[in-house]
């Protein structure tokens, strides 16, 4: 048997995801931004193992894939709350893929230093066209 590789035929695959694979994972997450996503689906889309994607994100993004996805979704929620203050916080949270509203609110406050409703209220007062009831 001949092998084109210099590695033995039974060499295990590289357990680290390349930067290209991390970017592919990010693109997949962006396309599936607000749907439930599993680590296995992200890894499959990037052509890597789940372990390799975990390691790749740690190396190239200094966070886990879940943390990256949550940051992305929180930024989207902030953008929506600012641009569309007439929408409810609940609707925005659900539309951004959050199913636990108290966890969403806590993560939002930790990320931005204010609650989602404070962001919404501030956007509405700047806009002046909306009256918010809560």
Task: List key phrases describing it.
single chain, 134 residues, mainly alpha, 0% strand, disordered N terminus
Task: Summarize the helices and strands and which ones pair or pack.
Elements lengths: L18 H13 L7 H8 L3 H12 L3 H19 L5 H7 L5 H12 L3 H12 L7
Helix pairs in contact: 1-2, 1-3, 1-4, 2-3, 4-7
Written account of the structure:
- The chain is mostly helical and 134 residues long.
- It is built from seven helices and no strands.
- It has helices at 19-31, 39-46, 50-61, 65-83, 89-95, 101-112, 116-127.
- The termini are far apart.
- The model is unreliable at 1-9 (pLDDT under 50).
Structure summary:
With 134 residues, the protein is mostly helical. It has helices spanning 19-31, 39-46, 50-61, 65-83, 89-95, 101-112, 116-127.
């Amino acid at each position: 048997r001949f092998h084109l590789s210099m590695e033995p035929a039974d060499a295990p695959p590289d357990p680290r995801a390349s930067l290209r694979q991390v970017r592919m994972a990010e693109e997949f997450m962006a396309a599936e931004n607000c749907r439930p996503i599993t680590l296995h689906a992200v890894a499959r889309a990037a052509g890597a193992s789940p372990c390799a994607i975990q390691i790749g994100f740690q190396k190239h993004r200094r966070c886990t894939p879940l943390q990256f996805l949550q940051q992305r979704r929180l930024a989207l929620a902030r953008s929506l709350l600012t641009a569309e203050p007439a929408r409810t916080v609940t609707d925005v949270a659900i539309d951004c893929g959050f199913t636990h509203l108290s966890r969403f609110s806590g993560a939002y406050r930790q990320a931005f230093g204010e609650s989602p409703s404070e962001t919404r209220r501030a956007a509405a007062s700047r806009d002046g066209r909306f009256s918010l009831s809560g």
